[in-house]
Amino acid sequence: MSAPAGASSPRLTLPDAAGTVVDVRAAAARVGRYDDLPYAARVFAENLVRRSDPAALPEALEALLRRDGTRDFAYYPARVVLQDLLGTPALVDLAGLRDALAERGGDPRRVNPAVPTQLVVDHSLNVDVAGDVPDALARNMRIEAERNAERFAFLGWARRAFRNVDIVMPGHGILHQVNLERLSPVMRQQADGLVFPDTLVGTDSHTTMINALGVVGWGVGGIEAESVMLGRPIRMSLPPLVAVGLIGERRPGVQATDLVLAITEFLRTRDVVGAILEFVGPGAAGLALADRATIANMAPEYGATAALFAIDDATLAFMRLTGRAPQQVRRVGAAARALGLWADDVAEAAYDRRLRFDLGGVGRAIAGPAQPHQRIPLTALRDRGDIAPRAETAPQALPDDGAIVIAAITSCTNTSNPRNLVAAGLLAQRAVARGLTRRPWVKTSFAPGSRVAESYLQAAGLLAPLEALGFGIVGYGCTSCNGMSGPLPAAIEQEIAARSLQAVAVLSGNRNFNGRIHPRVRASFLASPALVVAYAIAGTMAVDIEEGVLGHDRNGRPVRLADLWPDDAEVDAVCAAHVQPGQYVAVYEALEREADAPDVPAAVRYAWRDDSDYIRRPPYWNGALTAPFPAGPMRALAILGDNVTTDDLSPSGAILPDSAAGRYLIARGVAPADFNSYGTRRGDHRVAVRATLANNRLRNEMTPQHEGSWARIEPEGEVLPLFDAAERYRARGDALVIVAGRNYGAGSSRDWAAKGVRLLGVRAVVAESFERIHRSNLVGMGVLPLEFEPGTTRRTLALDGSERYAVEGYAEPSPPRGMLTLAIERRDGTRLSVPVRCRIDTHDESAMFAAGGLLPRIAAELLAEGVQP
What we know:
By secondary structure, the protein is an alpha/beta fold. The protein has three domains: about 80-360, Aconitase, domain 3 (2-Layer Sandwich); about 365-580, Aconitase, domain 3, CATH 3.30.499; about 625-650 and about 735-865, Aconitase, domain 4, CATH 3.20.19. The chain has a seven-stranded mixed beta barrel with strand order 24-27-28-29-32-31-30. Strands 6-5-4-9-10 form a five-stranded parallel beta sheet, with helices on both faces.
């Protein structure tokens, strides 16, 4: 347990009665130079001084100041933010933990978040009604409420039953944008006047968007988030701290989306995986905060843990723009200067590495067809054979391969940025004035991340032209970016299937993994909102979007992108005139009035329903799931390639009737029209386990003749649906292993990618490397992550899945990052021993794994503590 926040630390008084801060420099001076620390390390140092046990502080502070990455320290984030697809299962787990504690003689009221926890419902909205329908917003929200009534009722119970839980119900925006515009104070203040940096973790990898405000935060899985919610620290060692110096000025017509796609491509080749990046230099200083937010948002796409911009005048200007109280703005400025967190104060910090990126070298681009870092400059499109220019298609006919069937202005990455949206609106205005329309086979939608976007677009007269092109507002949430694109018209789906067309989606999102955006889409491209509008007019990737003809105006004259693209001065003038603080104040005061409505008291324990397929009591305290790691051999459930994503491991999008989850729901009497999505049903483990490894684009190398969720039973060699194969192995009592390539578990921070494989019976994953969040989630669920030594792969070992596997040398508790042996017995009886590194990285993780995972460990600790609520 930590000492009370700031209880024994010397303080400095801020000017203008703004409060006090801990004197971090005085504490640090005993062991090192505070002024050499980068921004993130200064925030960690403040956290240590304010929260550490005084007896442990000197050693922890010394490790931090001397950049000793071999020693870990306790880090206490100030709050937790949740999106509903991962936040709802997290609250379901806490409700289940209350039951587990009560049934063992404990007090269930002790299961309660100890830090502020804020959940925003943003992932449940499906685009059932496209943006060309006038009442799409009302209809989609009504459908969302009907489909998710049980989930939303559970969230209502959780808000009343748990302390420190605030829930923003649907229709208000996307978590990260609401966090940026309202939830984060940048600096927090205790009742005794102590001011300290806002810090957080979130159950979404794009939590890093808040880094634009100078707030340290990153994505974690739901399992780790639950631990922080319950007051446990994150045990962490200092990651690499890398400065990215931004130089130059962006070229005319280049959007923040273009910048972040180029930065993502650049950083993907600079080995920043797991690092905390700090953007510095004149280029960073010259970026508006909304542009910084676009760049920080995509930190997971370039592999970084966080992507920080230090606090400066642009930070304070954004706070004023978004309606923060003047006293709070002054407090942030004063505290940042006192703590050495003002941008000028970290200019000479000592980083582990320095990189440099020229903003002036970036042009307009898209990224795809299946990874965010697959950047394609628009000038290079005409040279790509797969999207070479073709003759113009008849007005009503669906074109050949490359037909764009989804064009979506979506995601926190881009709809938080007024310049991006205003540019799209101005392009639409010019297109409508010329008589252009979207192609009829393109399903269009616009889902802002905040209601403020509607306010300033309406004020600028830009909402109507967007609506005229089919980009009416369909709701306020993640939608297509999260795979909630909704159904395509039946005739379009039939033609795609009949002709085996390579249908395409273009979206202003942050991810475009295979199968994510829509099951019928084969390629997805990320683009700025303005380019999304242009592509909806073109209707096909076969058009040279930079130089070619998008369409013809009323007089038959060709119209090109240059004829429609607004200049920067026009965009800036519209933003200056129509994006105003009063809009933010009005939107968020309405939200706060809704949140302040009186509540009816809730029962301490949730009343589970046996007939539910949305919310079910979780099984993680059952004896079978807390069994020791198996000493005997394991069978391979799947052998997978590189960059297996959490979308492969636990998709969020549409449930197909012939999938394992679809068949289960049909057997339960649920009609396919009422399936909702995989993500919305993660509160019921019986559905969610059937969604594991259920991506219809998955490639299991054990079943090369099949695409999708298939496995091969050994030793028989029979090919079955993957869930059925896992059940067959469970009936036999066989433990399972997954073998994979590099970067296993990339993408979203969804804990069900780990929960699901554990419930399938997987006890170990052996890969060439792991994504940071997913590795942590595996440990938290009692699944052992093992890493091949460099140069050793499934291919060099010629593994085909017929083998039996055993882990030798494992003992509990396991020393962090120790070497073990993977014993492999081939079908012919030959054996080999392969050294592997155990990726249990800290002593705390070792204790957690030995307990069977985080949730069993917390239950045991609560029973042992015997502390009254």
